[in-house]
Structure formats: structure tokens, C-alpha cells
């Protein structure tokens, strides 16, 4: 079976969402394949949360369409195909851990056995404890146990590893990856660039209600500001720099003494040209950091809108 | 890369919008474990019955029973109303905790949720009415024919729905756990005005004119009508009107509340 013949896990086409005069989402087209781990990256107020709410069927798009595994979001939820783990809230403090899981399990047509789920989440030992008495970490495990009860095909996570230590974070992501291999799609919202780069197959960058980039971590970096090709090329005059500047995808050429810096989207072409057509040596290609890429793609940090 | 995919058509939707016995059991357990609820439901109305039920003139005739019976019906309504309002205000509290949002990510249908909460409110209301009736029987002062006893209890149960809706409404307007601090004294005041604690005939004319417009008046008259054989048309209008108003208010606030929590 190939992913091309299966229904996409999520499909958004021409989705917009307005709240009065505020255009939270301004036209999003996005398709997630089954089994992908996708980071949804963007500053606060970029439209991440609004988009996720529409995928969860908690709100309807102003225009455009949202489907989850080929179904309306609410239909997918009713079949237990979608789960979400929020960072805070979503628990009743006066229930015990077991009651919370039992309660949630009873609402679905099919679920995994409650004891199994408690066990796998590592909270079987505190099953009788009131939620109010559980630590933040225990509550987060409980939220995961609830989310995995129905064996969802799509799992949405909101800043999933906030507050976890390095070890916990690593264990968490290896579990998520194992699930993705059995076909589960994971979409996680984050504003940790590193985490997105490290754990996602794909990064979707959203800013001011639009998707501004979509690709792997290194693609995003390259997209944002291109790469910088640095060579030692003594005696580079205007004729040489003009020739370099006329190559496809070159943004800027700088000469600093014997060193020439070429900022280009297509660094390969520049490198090939420099090494074969000129006397350039000591060639170095550097990508800008994800942080810089992020800032340049999302506009500017000073521009943040409120949610 | 993808070795298996999930076939969405293989998944089923639960029957009855997700309503089931496990959920009802846990919801009832929650109420019964809550000390505050137990005080409102069982202890307070029963204590009021004990103190009011034996007041001077308890054996004077009223309709087909006595004043003791009149007080019993009134106190049962008060207890049930208080309980239902407390239960209703929990809906807003659950919303504030993000639990309602969590439930929306399950197959539980919003209508099933409301039905479930209504059922729990009715059970708790029945407990409150039962407690007052039990004290009334033990006290041995209230007297009325059995069928009136039953009819009064049943009407009281129906009337609790008004206050469940009021509880939801107030719970939304006054966020957090403060709702009961308003509902408690508020309902006591309304009960005074509506003639639950003191018959309206004891009030000055001007006060009575105001009382006719307050939400406890209508339901109190309705609940006592099997005993008194009196039911002015404006009491029925009052009961139906306030019920509609509170339900509309609760529905309005619930639909308005789209904030993420």
C-alpha cells in the first residue's frame, strides 16, 4: 500500500477564518499524509490554534473546506479517529485517574482496555489518585492516555514537551515515532524551532494566517534566506562579481578583500560556477540558522499579532 | 515509508450520542462525593424542614391537608432548587476547566451531554425532595392524602429544571466557583419573595405585587396546587415564563462562550 492511494489524514483547501474584523486565517491549503509527523510552527497569533480548532471541528472555517481522513471533522471525532492533547486543563480535579480514563473510554464505540492504557501511560500505580493530587507530569500522562484510548489516526499536540526534561522529551518522541510508523499522523504545534527541526518529518510554517513555508527543516532554512557561499578569490573585479550575480538565484555578492561572499538561494549552481569557471578556492557553504530562517519567513518579531 | 494506514470506514460511531451508564455512574458519584452538594441537597433542606415544620399552627388546615404539608412541599422545592442550581453551575465550572472542550473531542454529542446533566440534576433533586419528605414523615406533622404527597413531589422534581437552567446561566455569568456564593443567598431571597418560607398572604400588599413577578412564586404555587387546590393563571405564566427565560439565558451564554480554555 502506498500513501498515494490512501486518503490524506488532513486536507484543508482555501480555508479562511475571520473573527469580526480580525482575519485569523487568510487562506490555507494543506494536505497531510497518513503517518507523517508534522510540526506546525509559528509565532503566537499566527493562526496555528485557529487552524487546529478547525481540524478538530471546534470551529468552522469562514470559507473553504476541512476534511479529516476524508470525513467532516466532527464525523472523524465521532469515530474516534482524532485526538488532541492540550497543554493545560481538560481534566476534572475531583475524579480519580482511573475514573477519568473510564469516563472517556465509555464515550467511544471502541477503545483499548482501560487497564492496558493506564499501564502503557505509566499511571497504573496512581489509578486511584484524585486528579487534583497529581503532579503536572502525571496529569500530562493522563491526557496522553485519554488521547490514545481510541487508537486515533490523527493526533494533534499543543506544545507537547513543554516542561519535560531532555530525557523525557527523547522518550516521548521515540514513542510518537513508533506510533507514526503504524500509520498514525501527528501534527504538533510548537514554537520551538529546534524541536520542529529535530523530530518532524515536515515543518509547516504559518505566519499572519498564511502558510509561508512547507518542507523539511533544511528546506525551510534554505528557503528563508538561502545559503551563503564563501570563497577565497583574489582579484575579483566588477566583471567577475557581475558574472556571479547574473547566475540564477543569486541575491547579493559581497567582496571583502580576497574573500567573496555570495548569498544565493541555489548555492549548488554558484559553487559549481565558482569552482569550475574561476580560480576560487576554500569554498564554504553555510545555511543560516533555523532561528534566522524563521524570523525572516514570518516577517518580523515586532509584528506579532494577538490571538 | 508508511507500512500501514488506518481505514476510517472501519470505525463506528457510538449509539445514543455517547450517552452510557458508566458516565452516568461517575457523574452521580461526583455529586455524592462533593461535601458541599451533600450539605445543600440533604442536610440544609432537612434542617429547614425540622425547624420550620414544627412552627406554631402547623396543624391548621390548608386545602386537603395541613400547614405542615404546605411547609413540606415548600421546603422540598427549596432543597431541590438549590441542588439543581448547584449542579447547573457546575456546567460552567467544567467549561472553565477545559473539560467541556475535552468532551467535544470525544463522540459525546452536546445534546447527550445536556441530557446527562439534566438527568443527574433530576436525581439529585429527587434526593433533596426525598430527604425533606423523609424528615416530614419522621416528624409526623405534615398531613395530606398520599396521592397529593406524590403529586407534590413529582411537580417539585419538574420545577427543579428551572433552577438547573438558572444555575447554568449564573455559572456562565459569574465564572469560577463563585457562582454558588451568589446562587445560595440569591435563591434564599427569591424563596422569601416567592412565599416558600412565609406565605405571601403575610406580606404587605406592595411586597406581594413584586413577589408575583419573581421566579420562585410561580413554581411554588404550582408545586402546592395539589394541596391547596388553588392555582392562579399568573402563577402558571410566571412558572413557564421564568423557565423559558432561564433556559434561553443558559443557551445564549453557552453558545456565546467560544473562548478557548
UniProtKB/TrEMBL annotation, chain A:
Residues 10-233 form the ABC transporter domain. It comes from Nocardioides panacisoli. Gene3D superfamilies: P-loop containing nucleotide triphosphate hydrolases (3.40.50.300). One of its GO terms (molecular function) is ATP binding. It holds the Pfam family ABC_tran. It is found in: Cell membrane. InterPro entries: AAA+_ATPase, ABC_transporter-like_ATP-bd, ABC_transporter-like_CS, ABC_transporter_ATP-binding, P-loop_NTPase. PANTHER family: ABC TRANSPORTER ATP-BINDING PROTEIN (PTHR42711). It is a peripheral membrane protein. Keywords: Antibiotic resistance, ATP-binding, Nucleotide-binding, Transport. This is ABC transporter ATP-binding protein. It comes from the Bacteria.
UniProtKB/TrEMBL annotation, chain B:
The chain crosses the membrane at residues 38-58, 70-93, 114-136, 148-174, 186-211, 231-252. Pfam families: ABC2_membrane. Residues 22-225 form the ABC-2 type transporter transmembrane domain. Coiled coil: none annotated. InterPro entries: ABC2_TM (IPR013525), ABC_2_transport (IPR000412), T7SS_ABC-Transporter (IPR051328). Keywords: Antibiotic resistance, Membrane, Transmembrane, Transmembrane helix. This is ABC transporter permease. It comes from Nocardioides panacisoli.
Amino acid at each position: 500500500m502506498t500513501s498515494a492511494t490512501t486518503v490524506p489524514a488532513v486536507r484543508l483547501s482555501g480555508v479562511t477564518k475571520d473573527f469580526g474584523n480580525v482575519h485569523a486565517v487568510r487562506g490555507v491549503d494543506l494536505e497531510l499524509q497518513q503517518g507523517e509527523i508534522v510540526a506546525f510552527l509559528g509565532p503566537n497569533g499566527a493562526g496555528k490554534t485557529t487552524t487546529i480548532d478547525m481540524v478538530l471541528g471546534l470551529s468552522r472555517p469562514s470559507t473553504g473546506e476541512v476534511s479529516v481522513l476524508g470525513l467532516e471533522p466532527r464525523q472523524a471525532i465521532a469515530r474516534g479517529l482524532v485526538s488532541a492533547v492540550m497543554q493545560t486543563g481538560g481534566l476534572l480535579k475531583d475524579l480519580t485517574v482511573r475514573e477519568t480514563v473510564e469516563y472517556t473510554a465509555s464515550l467511544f464505540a471502541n477503545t483499548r482496555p482501560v487497564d492496558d492504557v493506564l499501564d502503557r501511560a505509566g499511571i497504573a500505580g496512581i489509578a486511584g489518585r484524585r486528579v487534583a493530587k497529581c503532579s503536572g507530569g502525571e496529569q500530562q500522562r493522563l491526557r496522553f492516555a485519554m488521547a490514545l484510548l481510541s487508537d486515533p489516526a490523527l493526533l494533534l499536540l499543543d506544545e507537547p514537551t513543554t516542561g519535560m526534561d531532555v530525557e523525557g522529551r527523547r522518550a516521548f518522541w521515540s514513542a510518537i515515532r513508533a506510533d507514526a510508523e503504524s500509520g498514525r499522523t501527528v501534527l504538533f504545534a510548537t514554537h520551538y524551532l529546534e524541536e520542529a527541526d529535530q523530530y518532524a518529518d515536515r515543518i509547516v510554517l504559518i505566519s499572519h494566517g498564511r502558510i509561508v513555508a512547507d518542507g523539511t527543516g533544511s528546506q525551510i532554512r534554505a528557503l528563508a534566506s538561502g545559503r551563503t557561499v564563501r570563497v577565497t578569490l583574489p582579484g575579483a573585479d566588477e566583471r567577475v562579481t557581475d558574472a556571479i550575480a547574473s547566475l540564477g538565484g543569486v541575491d547579493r555578492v559581497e567582496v571583502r578583500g580576497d574573500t567573496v561572499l555570495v548569498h544565493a538561494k541555489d548555492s549548488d549552481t554558484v559553487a559549481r560556477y565558482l569552482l569550475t569557471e574561476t580560480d576560487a578556492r576554500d569554498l564554504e557553504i553555510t545555511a543560516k540558522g533555523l532561528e534566522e530562517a524563521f524570523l525572516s519567513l514570518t516577517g518580523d518579531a515586532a509584528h506579532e499579532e494577538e490571538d | 515509508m508508511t507500512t500501514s494506514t488506518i481505514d476510517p470506514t472501519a470505525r463506528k460511531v457510538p449509539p445514543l450520542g455517547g450517552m452510557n451508564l458508566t458516565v452516568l455512574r461517575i457523574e452521580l458519584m461526583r455529586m455524592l462525593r462533593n461535601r458541599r452538594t451533600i450539605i445543600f441537597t440533604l442536610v440544609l433542606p432537612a434542617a429547614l424542614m425540622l425547624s420550620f415544620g414544627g412552627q406554631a399552627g402547623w396543624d391548621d388546615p390548608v386545602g386537603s391537608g395541613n400547614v405542615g404539608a404546605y411547609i413540606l412541599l415548600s421546603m422540598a422545592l427549596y432543597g431541590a432548587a438549590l441542588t439543581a442550581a448547584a449542579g447547573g453551575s457546575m456546567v460552567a465550572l467544567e467549561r472553565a476547566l477545559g473539560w467541556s472542550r475535552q468532551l467535544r473531542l470525544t463522540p459525546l454529542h452536546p445534546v447527550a451531554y445536556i441530557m446527562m446533566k439534566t438527568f443527574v440534576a433530576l436525581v439529585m433533586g429527587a434526593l433533596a425532595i426525598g430527604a425533606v419528605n423523609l424528615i416530614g414523615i419522621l416528624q409526623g406533622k405534615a398531613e395530606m392524602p398520599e396521592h397529593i404527597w406524590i403529586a407534590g413531589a413529582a411537580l417539585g422534581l419538574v420545577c427543579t429544571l428551572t433552577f438547573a437552567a438558572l444555575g447554568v446561566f449564573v455559572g456562565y455569568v459569574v465564572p469560577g466557583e463563585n457562582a454558588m456564593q451568589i446562587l445560595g443567598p440569591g435563591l434564599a431571597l427569591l424563596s422569601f419573595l416567592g412565599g416558600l418560607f412565609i406565605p405571601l398572604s403575610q406580606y404587605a400588599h406592595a411586597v406581594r405585587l413584586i413577589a408575583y413577578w419573581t421566579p420562585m412564586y410561580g413554581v411554588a404555587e404550582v408545586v402546592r396546587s395539589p394541596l391547596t387546590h388553588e392555582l392562579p393563571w399568573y402563577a402558571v405564566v410566571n412558572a413557564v415564563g421564568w423557565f423559558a427565560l432561564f433556559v434561553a439565558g443558559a443557551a445564549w451564554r453557552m453558545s456565546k462562550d467560544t473562548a478557548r480554555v
